[in-house]
Specification:
With about 70 residues, the chain is mainly beta. About 0% of the residues lie in helices and about 30% in strands.
């Protein structure tokens, strides 16, 4: 029998999170707003502009020292 150490997704608390998503219709790239360091980020997958939105995601804390956006 296989016992995984990974925590099931059902146990993780979720919240409405601010994100940036790619504007290119052929790309599905997105990132959390608190992990972006630019005021207007570009997609790392296709270099297109990104637009602000919201998504239900698991709660995740960014502990980076440099969280200011340029």
């Amino acid at each position: 029998m296989y016992y995984s150490r990974k925590r099931p997704m059902d146990d993780l608390p979720v919240e409405l999170t601010a994100i940036w998503s790619c504007t290119n219709k052929k790309c599905n790239g997105w990132t959390r707003d608190n992990f972006v360091f630019l005021a207007q980020p570009v997609c790392v997958q296709c270099n297109s502009l990104m637009e602000k939105g919201e998504k239900m995601l698991a709660i995740l804390e960014n502990t980076s020292f440099n969280q200011s956006k340029h």
